[in-house]
């Protein structure tokens, strides 16, 4: 037997044991802060604290191991060096969904806590092994904890950074859809249906509010009745409806598609395709904007900047423009997300922080306002002091333009990164500007002596919506504070209640004081739109998968979709 072949560990020879308790405490605290807090209190603040806690926990673990663990010197510093080198090396060969996820921070956010946990488990389990086996196990554990990320991809994330992990080689849901999608479109020249109408993004007023419709909220005895369900290509687009035809946008391989389906059967009617593809690691592939119906035209804006005017009956192209080139706007991280807005003889789109207006009939450029800012909001038409104006939110704040020529009326600066939501207008003309951590601000806009005057009324953190649009109803604001539905007083911004954790998007049935929520998990939920308390009236599982798309209610037909499937339900009206 060779000397030293079964040599005891240095701890066994010296009689000193490795000081493990600090490492165990550090990794327990690290995981509680990184994963426990965001799970219990899922909002942007705890998420940021969690991410920071995960990184600091990894640093604290290295300090413990390097200076206070009592491990052999060579073992201490070789482990730290190997951890750093393995993570750096792995980062060079990650799937794009991992390397670009969470704005490039995903690998750091998830790999450090995983590596920390694996390392402490190794220290605990191997403490009685011989030096040879102990160090071999250390190398294996470190390389495994970093190398496993080479075999993983992310199929997107939730609104609060919960990632959907898959094996890197697994077939994507989009590919499965394309392989199974054998239905041939059949054009329905007779589009006379039930008179249902939903012209585009967030309804006729572009505000998510429905008037003149009340529904039966007793879903236990009168649940939504499924009319049809079908697989669909990925995209964050919502839906436009006219009579028995519905329109949406989706990704189909290398083609960005505008698709038309029968409202009654869900069967495909026609499809228009442009060779273009956009993808990001958060929402995945596909268009982000929603089609707009106006007169005898359908206007669509894709994630890569293609603006189309189509015949809604058969999908034939009338004209097309590339707004990215026209505005020289930068297609930032999440693509172009604007839904077209029709104003008089113009169709207006936002290309990041820039605005472009085109002639409805010919598609000729009428005006362009180029801006170095960026944002993911859509142009919004409101009237202030009797003057119609286009409002656009971006990362610098809000601007107001004359629709006819794009002339600047006023500008309100409130810098904020990645502003996504739509502005909302109160009954007395004030506007609400939203944005994540900073909350909501109510701004009074008036015209005095021929000049526009802007005054801040209040700023509230009682509601911090991120990408979930809000509604105003009877002096109160309803929207999301993180994942939780919330209500604040329009008068002073003070929060009245904070309720269920749904995420997702909402529609207000104004005549019924009722919120219809399509949750991020694909559930339909009815909640009272009253300021006294949060009251959930009904809940119904509608579709599977992460759902960021706005729901649509046209007459008694409710349509929901996400990047996996689309479904139609008949709702019992009152």
General description of the model:
This protein is of the alpha+beta class and 574 residues long. It has ten helices and 38 strands. A five-stranded antiparallel β-sheet has the order 3-6-7-8-9, with no helix packed on it. Strands 4-32-33-34-35 form a five-stranded mixed β-sheet, with no helix packed on it. Strands 5-38-37-36 form a four-stranded antiparallel β-sheet, with no helix packed on it. A hairpin with a 2-residue loop joins β20 and β21 (387-394). α3 (44-68) runs antiparallel to α4 and α7 (106-125) packs antiparallel against α8 (131-147). It is globular, with a radius of gyration of 27 Å. The protein starts with 9 loop residues before the first helix and ends with a strand.
Explain the layout of strands and helices.
Layout: H1 10-14, H2 21-40, H3 44-68, H4 73-91, H5 96-99, H6 101-104, H7 106-125, H8 131-147, E1 152-157, E2 163-167, H9 173-180, E3 197-198, E4 209-210, E5 225-231, E6 240-242, E7 245-252, E8 255-262, E9 268-275, E10 279-280, E11 284-285, E12 292-294, E13 297-301, E14 306-310, E15 317-322, H10 323-327, E16 341-343, E17 346-351, E18 354-359, E19 365-369, E20 380-384, E21 387-394, E22 397-401, E23 408-413, E24 424-425, E25 431-435, E26 439-448, E27 451-460, E28 471-473, E29 476-481, E30 484-489, E31 495-501, E32 505-509, E33 514-518, E34 523-528, E35 536-541, E36 552-554, E37 557-561, E38 565-570
Parallel strand pairs: 4-32
Antiparallel strand pairs: 1-2, 3-6, 5-38, 6-7, 7-8, 8-9, 10-11, 12-13, 13-14, 14-15, 16-17, 17-18, 18-19, 20-21, 21-22, 22-23, 24-25, 25-26, 26-27, 28-29, 29-30, 30-31, 32-33, 33-34, 34-35, 36-37, 37-38
């Amino acid at each position: 037997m060779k000397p030293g072949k079964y040599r005891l560990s240095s701890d066994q020879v010296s009689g000193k044991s490795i000081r493990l308790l600090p490492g165990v405490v550090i990794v327990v605290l690290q995981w509680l802060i990184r994963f426990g807090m965001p799970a219990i209190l899922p909002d942007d603040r705890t998420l940021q604290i969690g991410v920071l806690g995960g990184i600091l926990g990894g640093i604290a673990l290295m300090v413990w191991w390097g200076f206070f663990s009592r491990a052999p010197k060579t073992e201490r510093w070789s482990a730290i060096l190997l951890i750093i080198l393995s993570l750096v090396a792995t980062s060079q060969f990650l799937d794009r969904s991992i390397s670009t996820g969470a704005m490039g921070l995903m690998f750091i956010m998830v790999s450090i806590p995983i590596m920390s946990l694996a390392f402490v488990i190794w220290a605990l389990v191997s403490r009685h092994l011989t030096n040879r086996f102990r160090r071999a196990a250390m190398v294996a554990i470190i390389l495994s904890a970093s190398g496993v990320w080479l075999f993983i991809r992310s199929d997107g994330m939730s609104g609060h950074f919960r990632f959907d992990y898959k094996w890197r080689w697994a077939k994507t849901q989009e590919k499965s859809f394309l392989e199974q999608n054998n239905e041939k479109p059949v054009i329905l020249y007779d589009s006379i249906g039930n008179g249902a109408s939903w012209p585009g993004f967030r309804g006729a007023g572009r505000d998510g509010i429905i008037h003149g419709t009340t529904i039966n909220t007793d879903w236990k005895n009168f649940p939504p009745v499924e009319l049809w369900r079908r697989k669909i290509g990925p995209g964050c687009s919502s839906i436009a409806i006219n009579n028995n035809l519905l329109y949406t946008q989706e990704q189909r391989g290398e083609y960005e598609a505008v698709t038309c389906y029968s409202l009654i059967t869900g069967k495909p009617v026609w499809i228009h395709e442009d060779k273009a593809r956009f993808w990001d690691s958060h929402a995945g592939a596909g268009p982000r904007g929603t089609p707009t119906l106006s007169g005898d035209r359908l206007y669509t804006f894709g994630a890569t900047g293609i603006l189309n005017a189509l015949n809604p009956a058969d999908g034939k192209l009338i004209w097309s423009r590339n707004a990215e080139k026209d505005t020289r706007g930068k297609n930032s991280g999440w693509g172009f997300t604007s839904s077209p807005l029709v104003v008089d003889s113009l169709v207006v789109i936002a290309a990041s922080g820039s605005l472009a207006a085109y002639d409805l009939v010919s598609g000729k450029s009428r005006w362009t306002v180029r801006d170095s800012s960026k944002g993911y909001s859509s142009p919004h038409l409101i009237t202030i002091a009797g003057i119609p104006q286009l409002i656009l939110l971006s990362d610098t704040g809000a601007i107001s333009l004359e629709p006819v020529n794009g002339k600047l009326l006023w500008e309100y600066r409130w810098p904020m990164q990645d502003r996504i939501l739509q502005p909302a207008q109160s009954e007395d003309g004030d506007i609400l500007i939203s944005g994540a951590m900073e909350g909501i601000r109510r701004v009074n806009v008036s015209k005095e002596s021929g000049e526009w005057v802007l005054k801040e009324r209040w700023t509230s953190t009682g509601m911090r919506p991120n990408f979930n649009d809000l509604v105003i109803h009877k002096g109160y604001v309803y929207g999301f504070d993180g994942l939780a539905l919330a209500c604040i007083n329009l008068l002073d911004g003070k929060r009245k209640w904070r309720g269920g954790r749904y995420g997702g998007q909402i529609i207000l049935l104004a005549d019924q004081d009722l919120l219809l929520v399509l949750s991020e998990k694909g559930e339909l939920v009815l909640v009272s739109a009253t300021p006294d308390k949060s009251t959930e009236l009904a809940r119904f599982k509608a579709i599977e998968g992460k759902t960021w798309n706005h729901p649509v209610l046209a007459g008694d037909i409710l349509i929901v979709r996400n990047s996996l499937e689309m479904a139609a339900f008949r709702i019992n009206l009152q």
